[in-house]
Amino acid sequence: MPDVEHLAEPESYALGVLEPEEMASAARHLAECSTCTREVERYARVAALLPYGLDDARATAAKVTPLRRMVKLSVWGMLTAACLAALIWSSMATIAAMHERTVIVAERTIVQMIATHPAMEKQLHPMLPAVANAHATLMVGHSGGMKTAVVVSQLPPAPPHMTYNLWYQSRGYGKPGPQLMALPDGTAICVVPYDVSQRYERVGIVLMGEGKHEMMFDAAL
Amino acid sequence: MRSTSGMHYDSYGEEALLALVARRDALAFEALYRRHAGLVRLLLRRILADVEDVEDCAQDVFARVWQRAESYRPSGAGPRAWIVTIARNAALDRLRRCKVRPQTEPLESGAPVPNAELADDPAAATLRAEIRRHVRAALQGLSEDQREALELAYFSGLTQREIAERTHSPLGTVKSRIRLAMRHLRERLEPVIAEELHA
Questions:
Q1: DSSP H helix total and E strand total for chain A
Q2: Which residues of B touch A173 (CB under 8 A)?
Q3: Which of A183, B87, B102, B113 is the most buried (most CB within 10 A)?
Q4: What global pTM score does this model have?
Q5: In sequence order, which residues have a C-beta less than 8 Å from that of residue A172 and are 6 or more positions away?
Q6: Each residue of B168-187: pLDDT tens digit?
Q7: pLDDT confidence of A120, banded at 50, 70, 90?
Q8: A141 near A98, Cβ under 8 Å?
Q9: Structure confidence at residue A66 (pLDDT)
Q10: For residues A172 and A3, which has the higher predicted lDDT (pLDDT)?
Q11: Are B125 and A208 an interchain contact pair (Cβ–Cβ within 8 Å)?
């Protein structure tokens, strides 16, 4: 017999579906019970994911006209490129040091990746023939266990309005990371301020844009 | 349109962004908006049928985020749940009020007015697509009855008793459906939630 009686319906409280008097009673209990509070918070996180189950085709924000968008992109793109270039060159010494410690964890060609993923081939080929024939090398480096440098060589230029981003995956759930920065020699890099291998099982490169993404390749860490 | 000066916030965690918003950092607010505007609109569109209402309410939601950021406590259910709760409450309030009188509430929050185009952030869109894939897979594991109870609870704002009346089911059955559905989703969505906690 437990000393403390806990909430019988933490999931219903998180959803807000109890009757008003039950909600009030539960709120009083939660003010004094950290165990139930944690349970409710966990279910609140689940509830917050429910809208993702809906079709968002109509929920996309209104887009500007292509011409206006292109003008804006060109202006902001130039400013962005200037800032990124400054950032890249200012941190070149650090990156060069990380290069020395870089360990190659994967060397994959996109063609090979497509061959093992028929569904991806179907999506990727008509859309990105140049990228689909690329041969790129993914390298992941560590610097004192605190940072991760991801370096990709021979990566073709991203198609218009698309970017290459890092991709992390753990237990089947993936998420995009920072955008890769292109260097003049065709190499693209990305530095993450923590050890990626401590958090994720796989790392990869993803091509993103227009609300879509296509996995280029990934590798186990 | 993405402001160049605000781009570095894209790598910030959500807790950090909200802390900056509480200090009235408009660029952090912009970054937070880019991440969540799509989800908020999705939810609002499900609850409110009228498109103008959705846009109006979305502005209202982010005005509240701007106003209430100081009251957010990091130990809670997380920024996404906090924002989604604000959005859901705002939409359900609006729905209830609209049944009584036309909606005429002006927006006077002092919050920066985000550009709707900001919602096009590719990383946010990609992350949304990945989460959606997991959520839909998890939802497919629910029975029709469980899904219906959950939808009436979450998107229509009905209490369990009201759901029981609406579906002509015993109250205990509705409670059971909701409990089992939420437990199933919690189990299936654990990697998504764990990642959110980690970030």
A1: 9, 9
A2: 130, 134, 191-192, 195
A3: B87
A4: 0.61
A5: B134, B191
A6: 999 999 999 999 999 999 99
A7: very low
A8: yes
A9: 33
A10: A172
A11: yes
Give B45 to chain A, closest Cα distance, Å: 7
C-beta atoms of A41 and B161 within 8 A: no
Show pLDDT as tens, one digit a residue, over chain B (199 residues).
Answer: 444 444 567 777 888 889 999 988 888 888 888 888 888 988 898 888 776 778 888 888 988 898 899 988 876 788 989 999 999 999 988 887 765 443 434 334 455 655 554 555 667 677 777 888 889 899 999 999 999 999 899 888 899 999 999 999 999 999 999 999 999 999 999 888 887 766 6
**Strand locations in A3-91 (E):** none
Q: How far is A83 from chain B (nearest CA, A)?
A: 8
Candidates B119, B160, B195; nearest CB to A17: B160
Tokens matching residue A106:
């994967």
What ranges do the domains of chain B cover?
A: 1-120, 126-199
The answer to whether B123 contacts A17, with C-beta atoms less than 8 Å apart, is no
Is there a contact between B1 and A209 if contact means CB atoms under 8 Å apart?
A: no
The reply to whether B126-199 shares the fold of B1-120 is no
- Chain A residues touching residue B185 (CB < 8 angstroms): 46, 49-50
Q: How many CB atoms lie within 10 A of CB A169?
A: 20
Distances (CA, A) of B171 to B67, B160, B161, B165, B174: 38, 7, 6, 8, 5
CATH label, B1-120, candidates 2.60.40.60, 2.60.40.1120, 3.40.50.970, 1.10.1740.10: 1.10.1740.10
Distance in Å, alpha carbon of B23 to nearest chain A alpha carbon: 24
The residue among B163, B157, B193, B187 whose CA lies nearest residue B176 is B163
Q: In B36-74, which positions are buried (b, 16+ CB within 10 angstroms) versus exposed (e)?
A: bbbbbbbbbbbbbeeeebbbbbbbbbbbbbbebbeebee
Crossing angle for the helix pair A92-100 and A66-90, to the nearest 10 degrees: 70
A46 → closest Cβ in B120, B163, B182? B182
d(CA B125, CA B36): 10
Give the gap in angstroms from C-alpha B110 to the nearest C-alpha of chain A: 22
Amino acid sitting at position A136: A
Class of domain B126-199: mainly alpha
Tell me, letter by letter, the H, E, C secondary structure of B85-120. HHHHHHHHHHHHHHCCCCCCCCCCCCCCCCCHHHHH
